[in-house]
Amino acid sequence: MNDRKSSPWAWIPTLYFAEGVPYVAVMTVAVIMYKRLGLSNAEIALCTSWLYLPWTVKPLWSPFVDLIGSKRRWIVTMQAVIGVSFAGIAFFLPTPFYVQATLAFFWLLAFSSATHDIAADGFYMLGLTSAEQSFFVGIRNTCYRLASLFGQGLLVMLAGWLEQTQGDVALAWSLTFYLMAGLFIALALYHRSLLPRPAADIRQKQLAPAELLSHFAKTFVSFFHRPGVWLMFFFLLTYRLGESQLAKIASPFLLDSAASGGLALGTAAVGMIYGTIGVVALLAGGIAGGMMASRHGLRRWLLPMALAINLPDLLYVWLSVARPDQVWITALCVAVEQLGYGFGFTGYMLYLIHIAQGPHRTAHYAIGTGFMALGMMIPGMPAGWLQQQLGYPLFFCWVCLCTLPGIFATWLVCRRGGLPRR
Predict the structure, then answer these.
(1) Domains of the chain, with CATH numbers?
(2) Is the full-model pTM beyond 0.90?
(3) Which residues of 148-157 are buried (b: 16+ CB within 10 A; e: fewer)?
(4) Nearest to 384 by CA among 374, 392, 375
(5) Pairwise CA distance, residues 338 & 263, whole Å
(6) Residue pLDDT, tens place only, 102-146
């Protein structure tokens, strides 16, 4: 019997908002915060790229989320841990050793968030009927994207306002993260009360740990025995090769002083341009990409999508050379780049779905997303050092050069990857 006293409307929006905010905080907000606190681009890119690791390796511990406890308990526990992590970051920001301490809590935040993702996606399938799953898929994706608007936009703009009013950058960001801590403690309490208790959400007792490990190992190995596996890896690791480096330097470039080659924008302005206007353009691009692919098939649109995600990187070359005084020009360039990114990223996600077909669909999709995170983590690590060695204009030229392997890989996949026509 499935005891669901709460309407899905009461918990799906908040659950997927809670899934999106920590990821944005780790991947984007941390970059902006460390830049405002005076870290170099090399330090920022190296340290924050390592934070991708939990999402890279989460398929390795996802079976244990099924084995130990219920997914409902995992969700509530991880949201509480996320709240504690935000509080730890806030507490140590004003200290002399804030870099080491806050990175430790960002690591805890990242692992908690990745585990929360596993539990939330599993709970979604257990807590809803098949018809409800289909109905709410758009709602959950929208709420996840709204978390990006909240994190990259409103949260950064709040920190910028506090920087101006308090006159202390560390205090401003500390207050911002205390707010996030309170929000997630509240979400943990809310979901502890409102989440349904599906009868199927129980500890899986039919498999012993050794049997589960053996089953997972077979599933993992089967992923590498797929036809055309090397072309698949080439595509997964290069499709966003340029974007993986651009993402680490875009915000520092907007924030950096004119003497350092940046655009010298304020924190609040970056929150508005990159975190609000950019995210809206990203959403629009994703919607357009989904519509086009559904009408004409992935095979027809994958190469145009690869071009859309990569060619707009040239706008950053122009921005770094021209350095326009008008903020609206910068906002327009960022919006166009993010629009192309949203459109092109749709093709990447549809390809992941394509390669995950078969009896181990869920596990293979999780492994594919791990390689997706790996493709962002490794190139992003040296991006800051490269920028410091080359300067912004040459670095963005390098980023554009790095887009070529992904475009070539896409061309090969379209020719040999067995993509469906519809």
Answers:
(1) 1-206 (1.20.1250.20), 212-422 (1.20.1250.20)
(2) no
(3) bbbbbbebbb
(4) 392
(5) 18
(6) 999 999 999 999 999 888 877 877 777 767 766 776 677 778 888
